[in-house]
Amino acid sequence: MVIYPAIDIKDGKCVRLVQGRFEDVTVYSDDPLEVARSFERAGAQYLHVVDLDGARLGSPQNADIISGIAASAGIPVQTGGGIRTLETAGMLLGRGIKRVILGTSAVNDPMIVKTAAEKFNSSFAIAIDAKDGLVATEGWARTSGFTAVEFARKMEELGAKVIIYTDISRDGMLKGPNIRAMEEMVKAVGMEVIASGGVTSIQDIKDLKNAGVAGAIVGKALYTGNIDLREAIEAAK
Q1: In a 10 Å sphere around its CB, with 0-12 CB exposed, 13-18 middle and 19+ buried, how is residue 180 labelled?
Q2: Strand runs (DSSP E) across 41-80, as ranges?
Q3: Which of the four, 15, 20, 30, 170, has the lowest number of CB atoms within 10 Å?
Q4: pLDDT (tens digit, 9 = 90+) per residue, 80-135?
Q5: Which neighbouring-strand residues pair with 78?
Q6: Segments of 112-191 assigned E as strands
Q7: Catalytic amino acids?
């Protein structure tokens, strides 16, 4: 299982939100690039970088910072937030990003996923962010009529190979991930499932590994010191 340290960028700074609420923000660093380097030095194999401003405004707002991270961190970067068109996805991939994440665009126009699969192969992932069991969009501000599992199966049919599954109720709360939901998703699809939201302890890492997920995104717990990244990587092996 791969551990993905998370870097959320807002106004050029490394921040964390609580349950996606932009008014509930904590700034952890003015230098996301140095945060990325510190994760790389601790042994990270992959970075998860989110453009929060992009998610809210509908187009990337921190692309220069994120491509700078990809160029200097020395490990692959996956990024999401405001990637609403294939042109935007292609631009980011052309700037050294390893994997782009489609969320709102996939809900609004599922056929974009079929084209992305043909064009980008496995260099994209689908973000499935669940709020009360339903897929949320627009930076988690709205919910769709799809359940998470229904939507995941549809994405798989269209050619997606990787999903990032977030339980919004757990995100930034330091209360542990929704293991049951992750297990249900792993059993429902044949894609790689990357778990996100609520990872708080090394035991959570072990529980997610036992649930069969391919990866786990760890955010706030790294910044608060609840989880040591080196220990998390070791537990995931």
Answers
A1: exposed
A2: 47-51, 77-80
A3: 30
A4: 999 999 999 999 999 999 999 998 889 889 999 999 999 999 999 999 988 877 88
A5: 48, 99
A6: 124-131, 134-137, 142-147, 162-167
A7: 8, 129
